[in-house]
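Predict structure. Chain length: 451.
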Amino acid sequence: MAETHGLVERLEKAVIRLESLFSGSHRSGGMECDAINGVNGSIAPYVEAFDRLLNGCVAEFLRYSKILEGDVKTHNEVAMLLKPISEKIQEIQNFRERNRGSKMFNHLSAVSESIPALGWIAVSPKPGPYVKEMNDAATFYTNRVLKDYKHSDERHVDWVKSYLNIWSELQTYIKEHHTTGLTWSKTGPVASPMSMRSVLTSGPCLSPPPPPPPPGPPPIFDTEATKDEGTAFRSALFAQLNQGEAITKGLRHVSDDQKTHKNPSLRAQCPPIPSPTKSHTPSPTSPKSSPQQSHAPVLELEGKKWRVEYQEDKNDLVITNTELKQVAYIFKCNKSTLQIKGKINSITIDNCKKFGLVFDNVVGIVEVINSRDIQIQVMGKVPTISINKTEGCHIYLSEESLDCEIVSAKSSEMNILIPQDGDYKEFPVPEQFKTAWDGSKLVTEPAEIMG
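Prediction complete.
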């Protein structure tokens, strides 16, 4: 009986200590954890630094959010309930999607597109650059806020500065204390999910890392979309693509035995793919009632040609390890986005709908043929972009590509977006022309639409 009584007393003491760990205040919880680590109740420097970050720039941002009131205040309150982190990130992004009609939609988008930065605790070995990429995604929208309010309401300017300062301070904190990422311990008690310190303390009291943050919302496609919705789609599309290397985190590795060009048995199972040198337009004599054939999606390098064909609702397509002699041929892709890294010879987009393309450098030409609702963003340089028989084409040029020549024929709804003052300014490509005989030759120039 004496042994049993002694064991019960020891168990009671252990339970009391665990309850103290989970229910203690922010500071006492950290001291309890440090005491278990043998630090004699002292607080680790990286914990104190994180407290300063929370009590400094984060607190300032909360104050400015409350001043603005409305959707910004509500959205911010949601952001503070990060338990678990990945679920709340998704909740913040959903809040933005549910409030597309809000007059503060750019504010909400800035937070929504950059909030995955809170997942840095699961990023290794370079969490700092990851936070910077998320900060860059926010800048696309904060520039819009500054453009709308910098001469009319300084409260919004203060809000932007305070928000971007959070990510700048977080990068500094990571660089000083967690340059290569947190060190997760496989032993020790599980930390309380209600305490941010429990999540961020890199000692034996840590719980396993939370799952990576969910990807940003995919582009929203609507055949009856208005011009404002189209603008929102382009913003969401390129903010997502501007994540850089983070966009490839969800990609699955494909082994050689799963690649059609290295496995003849798989290639034999796939339907024949039309040659890109021939017209893909159905014959006028073809019966309209014949069912459309389904094709297997393709993303592979065939000789010197990258083939990207029949991709549907894929927003994480990426081509890397490109060479100057290679070309890319994109055929019949729908509601998808593709990023091409490095330098490539040429790119052709043929018979695609609602397709987004981001590329670094092209030494030859980018062609858009027989397509609809195409978004193109140039990150580096390209000498020529050709648009032929296409309805709806928006081209975002970089500072380096402003000397690019745009050649168009039999196309409509074309816009070139030029970077100016941290934002893009849209310029329509003329669709009507007037031609006159000047006595020796025909002279053609854009026609001004008379109102």
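Summary: DSSP finds eleven helices and 16 strands in the chain.
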